[in-house]
UniProtKB/TrEMBL annotation:
Any Gene Ontology CC annotation: external side of plasma membrane
SUPFAM superfamilies for this protein: RNA-binding domain, RBD
Name of the protein this chain belongs to: Ecto-NOX disulfide-thiol exchanger 1
TM region positions: none
Annotated GO biological process: ultradian rhythm
Protein family: Belongs to the ENOX family.
Amino acid sequence: MVDAAGFESVAQCPRELHQMMAAAADGLGSIALDTTQLNMSVTDPTAWATAMNNLGMVPVGLPGQQLVSDSICVPGFDPGLNMMTGITPINPMIPGLGLVPPPPPTEVAVVKEIIHCKSCTLFPQNPNLPPPSTRERPPGCKTVFVGGLPENATEEIIQEVFEQCGDITAIRKSKKNFCHIRFAEEFMVDKAIYLSGYRMRLGSSTDKKDSGRLHVDFAQARDDFYEWECKQRMRAREERHRRKLEEDRLRPPSPPAIMHYSEHEAALLADKLKDDSKFSEAITVLLSWIERGEVNRRSANQFYSMVQSANSHVRRLMNEKATHEQEMEEAKENFKNALTGILTQ
């Protein structure tokens, strides 16, 4: 490439340039080849393939026709696919290739804006400065510490600025340039922390007493911690109650309660022992009374009569069982004989 100065020098000496071009033409004429030697058959595919191979180009012929062997062609060239093989394909979805924009940064700096109030104005700090530091958040924190207040800041001005974060339940202002603000809910504290680092200016005054840089931080208050403990205990009670209901639901049903022994209950129980439908319930009550030690000299006769009734009832049941078993054996024998006769026929 020739710059502007070079063009000017060439324009100033056209005679020398003409002489140089003539000498170059003479040199090319001395090494020129006979045009007749470059003539070759157009229909000869081998000649074209050799020429293109010498020029470093991949030979391309008619569809399905291979001009030269694989040993002469460029290594790794597939004639069927008409492309190079053995090269790892590039993923177009890789960021940085221009096809897909790079992922956005994970951390985006929050741009704070100027906040206008009736009696003051809040100016954000320089975004290049590090964010204000905060202490570890206490459990159930609803109170914030606000430092760096202007000397002329009143409780009404503080109320006006921080009531935008939520309902304020109490403001405890010190004689110095700080105060404590308690909110109704915990999430309001996060909104108040956002104001940390702002510079407060009262009205349009530039006096030092009317300007200050706010520092908002978590405060550890006994009221917040007490409410948090109360909530934790209430949640623990609800959890225990829920578990008890779940256990009661999964527990098998308890047996009916056994009434206490009395002469009247003993007379009723004696009648139940003679009833087939109530015998199972009555015998359970009788065994419970015996295990409790209700048998004594005064009640021995009643218990003896109840045990005799139970014994006679059990003996009758055993006799009925034996009778049914005998009938079952006879029925089996009859069935066996009838089936044998049928099979025999």
